[in-house]
Structures are given as C-alpha cells and as structure tokens.
C-alpha cells in the first residue's frame, strides 16, 4: 500500500509540474522567428518579449489564461486535500475531495487547450505559419494525467 501511495504522490507532483510548465513557459506556438504562449510573444532575434494584446485576441485568450491558472490551483489544492485526507479519513473511505478537485483541474486544462485549438487560426493570422509548441502538447498530456489521477483518487480506498 505504501508503494501505491508513493506512486500516486509522485504522479500527482509530476502532473502539477506539467501544468506549471504548460501555463508559464513560452512555447504554445512556435515559428522560425518567434515563440508565443498564452501570456506573451518572444522573438528570437530580440532579447525582449511583447505582452499579448488582449484586444487583438479577444476574450478567448482571457478564458485560456483563467482556466489554465484554475487548473494549476485545483491541482495544488487537490494535492493538499489528498495529504490531509490521508491522515484524517477512516479506514475504507474514498478520497472524494481530492479526486473531485483533480477532475476539476482536468476539466479546466481541457477547456483551455480546446479553446486554444479552436481559436489558433485567429490568434496567429498575422504571424508566419508555425507549429504547436511543447507547452501546448504538455497541456494535453497534463489533461490526461489529471484525469487519470482524479479517477485513481475516486477509486482509491484507504486501507491498512
């Protein structure tokens, strides 16, 4: 049982790290001249970065920023809830609070990545063609990981 709990803790920390990287790092969209994330655009030939202009992206970028931040918050609170429930729950009970928060984190990151995918043509219409960056891919991987860990928490019972 301790090995399983250790695996779950490591899996949860790895998922939180993926969410932090996907939210903060500047690699949602890559071209030969620049890389863009949900916060700013950095040009390779300059040392500075330009903030995203909300007016040109519309409310979609605000929704993406908000839901990615929510996913990180839900994931961190879920980890704290899991640790608290680990010591407070009676034998045989399930980790419903931690699982629910992790599923909310999964839903939030899925919404953010889905909005970004559907609005990608509008976001990058003024840039030369490019490809999705690794932060975008990490966001989708984090979605899968948070979904899996949320289901694991729902199924997991506290045993001796």
From TrEMBL:
Entry's Gene Ontology cellular component terms: apical plasma membrane; Golgi membrane; membrane raft; nucleus; perinuclear region of cytoplasm
Matches recorded under PROSITE patterns: PMP22_1
Cleavable signal peptide: 1-16
Keywords for the protein's UniProt record, in alphabetical order: Cell membrane, Cytoplasm, Golgi apparatus, Membrane, Nucleus, Signal, Transmembrane, Transmembrane helix
Membrane-crossing segments per the record: 63-83, 95-116, 136-156
InterPro entries: PMP-22/EMP/MP20-like (IPR050579), PMP22/EMP/MP20/Claudin (IPR004031), PMP22_EMP_MP20 (IPR004032)
Keyword Cytoplasm part of the UniProt annotation: yes
Membrane topology: Multi-pass membrane protein
UniProt superkingdom: Eukaryota
Compartment list: Apical cell membrane; Cytoplasm, Perinuclear region; Golgi apparatus membrane; Membrane raft
Pfam families named in the record: PMP22_Claudin
PANTHER family: EPITHELIAL MEMBRANE PROTEIN 2, EPITHELIAL MEMBRANE PROTEIN-RELATED
Family: Belongs to the PMP-22/EMP/MP20 family.
Protein name: Epithelial membrane protein 2
The species this protein was found in: Scyliorhinus torazame
The organism's taxonomic lineage, starting at the top: Eukaryota, Metazoa, Chordata, Craniata, Vertebrata
């Amino acid at each position: 049982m301790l090995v399983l709990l250790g695996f779950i803790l490591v899996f949860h920390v790895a998922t939180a790290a993926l969410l932090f990287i996907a939210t903060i790092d500047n690699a949602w969209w890559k071209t030969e001249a620049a890389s863009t994330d949900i916060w700013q655009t950095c040009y390779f030939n300059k040392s500075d970065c330009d903030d995203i202009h909300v007016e040109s992206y519309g409310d979609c970028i605000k929704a993406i920023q908000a839901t990615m931040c929510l996913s990180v918050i839900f994931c961190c609170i879920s980890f704290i809830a899991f640790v608290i429930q680990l010591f407070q729950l009676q034998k045989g009970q399930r980790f419903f609070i931690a699982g629910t928060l992790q599923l909310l984190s999964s839903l939030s990151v899925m919404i953010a990545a889905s909005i970004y995918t559907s609005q990608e043509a509008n976001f990058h219409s003024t840039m030369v063609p490019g490809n999705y960056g690794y932060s975008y891919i990490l966001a989708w991987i984090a979605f899968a990981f948070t979904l899996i860990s949320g289901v694991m928490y729902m199924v997991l019972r506290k045993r001796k």
